[in-house]
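Field: COMPLEX_INPUT
Field: COMPONENT_COUNT = two
Field: RESIDUE_TOTAL = 1113
Field: MODE = joint
Values follow.
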Amino acid sequence: ETRTTFNRGPQRSFECMWRDMGNAVASIAWAVLLLPPITAVFVIISRFSLLHPIQAVSECLSFLTSASAIFSFILLCGVIIMVGFLNLEYYTVIPTIACSKIALLGQLLHPRQFVNSLGHCIMGIIVAWCCAITVGGRYETIADPCAQGDGSPQMCLNEYHLILLLAGAFVGFSHSLLGVIYNMNYVSFHTVQQYKYLRFKGSLSLVLKCSATQALYSVRNYIVVYFFLGKWSLSVHPLDSIAGLLDLSLLYHLWISASFLLFTWHLTLLLFRVFVTEVYSFPVQSSFTEDAHQCLPTVLTDKQPMILKFLALLDLALLSQHSPSRRSEVFSLSQPGGHPHNWNAISKECLSLLADLTQRLIAYHDTVATNGRAKSLSTGSERKTSSESSGMFPRPTLLMKTPASVFARSIVGCPQSPLTAPFTPDLDSPFASPALRRLTAPMDQCSPWFGTVQSPHIMRRVPKLWSTSTGEKSQALFADSQAHIWALEGLSYLVQSSFSEDQFGVVQTALPSILSCMLGLQEAVDRHFKLPHASSKPVRSASSMGDSTHKTLRFALRATLKTSIYRITTTFGNHLNAVKMSAEHRKRLQQFLEYKE
Amino acid sequence: MCSLALFPPPLPSGQTTLCESNNELLSGTTTEDRLKLSLKLHCRTESSSKAAFLDHSETLWMRSAAACSYIYQLMSFYINSPLSCAVVVPKWLSVSSGCTLALLRWFSSFHGSLFPHLTMSSEDMLAEFSQVLNWSDCVVRAFAWHPHTDKFAVALLDDSIKIYNPKSATTPTLKHRLQRSVAAVQWKPLCATALAVACQNCLLVWHVDPCSLSTRPSSGCAQVLSHPGHSPITSIAWSPSGSLLVSASPMDTAMMVWDVASESGVPLQRVGGGGVTFLSWSPDGSHVLASTPSALFRVWETRMWTCERWPCVKGRCQSGCWSPDGSRLLFTVQGETVIYALTFTDTPAGVPTCTSKGSQAAAVVADLSETTFNTPDGDIIVGGEIQSLAWDPTGERLAVLLKGDPQAADRPAIIAVFKTRTNPIFELLPWFVLLCVGFVQGEPGTEPRLMQFHPNFQHGALLTVCWSSGRITHMPFYFLSAGVPHFGLSGSPSLPRPQERPADFAKQSLFTELMS
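Field: COMPLEX_OUTPUT
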């Protein structure tokens, strides 16, 4: 048994890597394929003139066939491929939620983020150079011949070229920073399933709008920065004056170049999101043992990579809802032996996920209730999951690398706030094995950190910067709740269809534990929403490429939880009175049976 | 095929339909039935001044469209007026502006002739596409039974919504600043609290705690869902699993699919049709009917959200309803007097297919063309165009609301009730059988405006009808559900409680509480 586990690991991660890679490569390929038309449109927009339309078009055509255009196009393709791989490297299915300003700062100053920003800066310069070549005219070269005072010809700095290159760097950098602030690397799954092409088409106009607005703001900020910092002694036309910068044609070219840059990048990101969240149908069971590791029950119970686990949960939710034939496989008994292995594995994993969330909520609530404030405020950090969720570069589990004391602290700290020290990788991946947790749980009290850090004495001295907002903490608590939502949906639909489809009564045996788990979670969620700010709605950012789905996950979870319990109570009705459960849960269930929740 | 000629004649004046038992509709003369709920007639508020001004909450698009039309009028005035000859303008300017004007005119006439509904005001549009007969002057503008319990919501002319629950003494009244011109209400399935309301400019989702004693829930209890360009909303539909909500606006070619908890919507855009007017989600959750203002409707499958296009010959799809198993769709077309049926035989779910392969053409299942009946009060002409359809949750009764003619006294709006059987025991018979039961009539001088079946009535079906007088009546149809095999199509199941007569119905808790 142990040997198979050992052998299976690398093989599986290899396969996952290929699946991930395949999707990412397909999305990058599409982005590259879409580049020629986008570039052509950009050339036409940048060179078009109202007064000489025919001349402008012929110029565009001659430019498009020139060697410099082809060279810059190859450069752009390289940039797109690079952006695609950065997307793959940095994406996460569980958002990183910074609960305080300092945690956000920590994220921004993180070495990994620094590499990202640097990469985007360089790519921004490259794209801006291509734009300068494309726009042509005064932007084309870095040095211009100019006449000195004595009349001798000399090469001077062409500031028009420079301002465009620096704009590229600035936009690239700000794009990278905004990516952290708006969680642009977070890949969310849609409730409405659509084919890839339709989803892409549906989001295209939004991407265009976002790119244009973000470019406008970036250029505005850039102009301000340039006005104060852009002093070049070698320049022939100094631009750091108000008159120099308020050149409409210059502003227009800066804006369309920035829009072009952001549009190609956002498009790559959109394609990546569309491809990586595509529904994947896992086999429920296989007749060959060597394929067993690809089956739904096995993939579900795996910790890594996260994206695969999410896809498996999504598949579970969909099959339980739409597919009677696959449901019958879930309810089937093993041959030989007659054990419901599939159902057992699936229900156990779903229940442990839900129990995990319940524990997390109870622990958080207890801390808030005892201390008045959450304990580990001063240890603010981020939830470090991005690296773990990337399937391309499998890393050793971070759990191994951490000293026990930090680990113990994070176990206490994380449920309340998934924030530990800014640069310590957070060990409390939401799916970290519950067994390990149980093992380390008694250490809480012994940890030397425990008593001191949370003493209110220190808390009072904590500066404003460190303080967290409860709404964001609530968001952080539910950061991975998409998994819980699918687990709830999957379980409740399976229980519902078991009423008529479960021939061997395999679901019946688990019904009491499912009900008590859901009712327990319901109680914990109810209590959580009574906390101040927990039920306040986040402000919706309308036009941004960042995904704000994570901000409302707790509401979605609450609604799904209620619906799931109702789904079971409406199906089974008064039969549920025969199910054994505690008096408290019975009372709660009665509320549901009477439609009073 | 069934036609109205097979129906028993309408009741003489003064008789009111009470219930169905033994396969026939029983009637009574008492006007003080206990099966009713009177609602106070509300006078129309702020009706006149509104249209004169542009509404502040109109979208940017609508405002710019209005501005465009203003410029267009201005241009046409200057160019067409004899004054323009006198004013010295450069020749090229007048020629080019004339060309532009001609182009604009051509385009606007083209667009307007394609989609005439775009020129209507929002109120007219709501009245035109609502399932309610004469929506604009109807006291009850929308009605919704809760899918699981005996409570219902009623939207009134004064834009308030009342929730009646026989088990509770309080009658919450929902009012919200944005709750104007309510076109539809619907309770969320698998939930006790959530009520979706289609308003003029947005979609509201109220959360009304059934245990709360408050009679005026604050507007904080309502979620506001809106999307630019998506108004007025004429139709909404919850998925039977309670997870999604779809909404339709005749001004928006996209149908919105909302995840209400996270307040995010996905527009599902399709070219053609010029908007979406009416939505109906099949009870098994697999399909959504979406009709457009033009002669075209779509049937979406809800797994991957792809759609089938169904062009109609004559007019737009006015109303439609699904069989309980979601395999059959009945619909009516504006300008026609027949009911069509479509069959959807799904491929096994789980196999992702683009479309569910069904029949290639709709079949006519009932002809409701005008028929003259001789009654003691004179000839009555019944039939004609159909306003709405309702199919009861057991799939055994179909109620059809016929428009009639409000100007002619002998052509009243009336509800015809059919007996339906979708799964015949004898395979030789066509899959769908309609048998007539009779006409539902109310008090003299009132006409039915809106109807809905109770989602889970134990002894058959319960039809709720809202009348032009503001009265809401509940009409039980007693029969045994097809769960028990019957032999022969005309055999009537016995009344579940033979000792109970129509006059005793008030003993049931549901109705006693509803008397006002």
